[in-house]
Amino acid sequence: MAEKNIVFEKSSIKYKGFFEAKQLFLIIDGWLKDNNYVKAEKTSIQKNNDSIMYAQHKLEPFKKVSDYARFIIKIDITLSDVESVLIEKEGQKIPVEKGEVACDFTGLLETDYQNKWDTKPIYFFMKTVFDKFIFRSERSNIDSELKGEINDLMNEVKSFLNLYRF
């Protein structure tokens, strides 16, 4: 059975103001493609009340690190009290959204994700020995790589949202 270990505890980005929701998702999608992640959307909820929108998206993109381990980044994006507005920038009216954005990021390391080592008791024993003695030395390098990638993604999102501060 695959084991999921939390490497990067839940970290949040909160923003209130003007933004472009479509661009936010394009930034995240572009970063995932550039870093060889396979996008997996778990849930997507959108509710509209008159001119105000609420949306929640949960993504779990993953990246194969080796035949034994892969990275999973849990991304929870919540858009609340969102309404479309027009802002004037350099003499032109630009349609944007105004509201609140909350992005939560959690990093997981999933080992034996193909369940190859749980088919027989001897394989399970070998997997346990491998995890305790052999994979242990490589684990810290893999953990720091995942943390670095999540920090990079968070910086991309922060930079994008800071573009809309006036």
Write structural notes for this entry.
By secondary structure, the chain is an alpha+beta fold. It has 2 helices and 6 strands; from the N terminus they run βαβββββα. The termini are far apart. The protein has one domain (3-162). α1 crosses α2. The chain has helices at 21-34, 121-162, and strands at 3-19, 41-49, 52-59, 62-64, 69-89, 92-111. The mean pLDDT is 89. The longest helix is centred in the last third of the chain and has 42 residues, at 121-162. The protein is 34% helix and 47% strand. Strands 1, 2, 3, 4, 5 and 6 form a 6-stranded antiparallel beta sheet that branches. The protein is elongated, with a radius of gyration of 20 Å.
Low-confidence stretches: none
Following the backbone from N to C, one meets helices and strands in this order, namely EHEEEEEH
- The number of distinct β-strands equals 6
The end-to-end distance, rounded to whole angstroms, is 50 Å
Overall SS class = alpha+beta
Could you tell me the strand content as a percent range? over 45%
Oligomer: single chain
What is the total number of structural domains? 1
- The average pLDDT score comes to 89
Q: DSSP helix count?
A: 2
What about the largest sheet?
A: 6 strands, antiparallel
Q: What percent of the residues sit in helical stretches (DSSP H or I)?
A: 25-40%
Morphology: elongated
- Rg, Å, rounded: 20 Å
